[in-house]
Amino acid sequence: MIQYKTNPRTSDQPLSFSRQIKPGSYVFLTSGTCEATNHVSHETLQRIGLKTGIVNGDHYPLTESEMQLIGEEYIPFGRQMAMIGYAVLMNGRKYLAPTIEVPFGTHTPGAGNYLEAQTEAHQSMAMANAVAEAVGGYCCYTEEWIASHAMGGVICCEILIPIDYALEKATTYEEWTAHLSGLAKQFENASESYTPTHTMH
Fold first, then answer.
1. Range of the domain at 19
2. I need a surface site. Which of 20, 52, 78, 178 has the fewest CB within 10 A?
3. CA of 162: how far to CAs of 71, 145, 189, in Å?
4. pTM of the prediction?
5. How many CB atoms lie within 10 A of CB 20?
6. Hey, what long-range contacts does 189-195 have (CB within 8 A, 24 or more apart)?
7. HSE-CB for 93 with a 13 A CA cutoff
8. 200 domain residue, yes or no
């Protein structure tokens, strides 16, 4: 299994977008495969007034209704694909975090080099920011480099969508993924008018 490490420079970069936040501003509640990360305890979530659920007899950070809105797969998201298994906690609120992943280097067949991936990620961030503005959410840019060898990595563009917003728009997985794809379609041209003010790296 490939192990990644976060490029520390991405925490120091200027924020180029109106809804962009720095890596580390939030805590993952679930993984891309929808598993509980256990980074935040059931007791802590209850203490800050957030409800949780039960999966296979164990506490789970999302309620039954919230669980319906994540899945262990990628869905079309504008010109990209987004993994929709992630949920996060920030400032006492839950967010869904569909994530666009742009690989670079020789470890992924067909992937471009780092600069090509950066350009693609910048365009994805422009769309992510437009979606975040529309839903009252945030976006984040993170670089994950392969820890064992300088052969590449992946740039992640995460869109934090308030879970309350999601529950207002959908009650089933199918409804939510259709709504997400519709948002991406609505704002996929945002990247065409975007002119970088800072270089992300």
1. 4-192
2. 178
3. 17, 28, 23
4. 0.87
5. 19
6. 190/126, 190/127, 190/129, 190/130, 191/122, 191/123, 191/124, 191/126, 191/127, 193/126, 194/122, 194/123, 194/126
7. 15
8. no
Tokens 């976006």 label which residue? 139
Which DSSP category does 25 fall into?
A: S
* pLDDT score, position 42: 94
What is the domain count for the chain? 1
Secondary structure (H, E, C), 93-161: EEEECCEEEEEEECCCCCCECHHHHHHHHHHHHHHHHHHHHHHCCEEEEEEEEECCCCCEEEEEEEEEE
Query: How many Å apart are CA 94 and CA 165, to the nearest integer?
Result: 10
CA distance 135 to 186: 13
Residue type, 100: I
| Tokens found for residue 14 | 């200027």
Contact assessment for residue 191 and residue 135, using Cβ atoms and an 8 Å cutoff: no
* In the block, residue with structure tokens 């800050």: 48
Tens of pLDDT, residue by residue over 104-144, are 887 777 788 888 888 889 889 999 999 999 999 999 999 88
pLDDT at 64: 97
By DSSP bridging, strand 4-6 and strand 138-146 are antiparallel
Establish if 47 belongs to a structural domain: yes
Read off the pLDDT of residues 44-68 as tens digits, 9 standing for 90 and up.
999 999 999 999 999 999 999 999 9
pLDDT tens by residue, 179-193: 999 999 899 887 665
Place of tokens 């503005």: 133
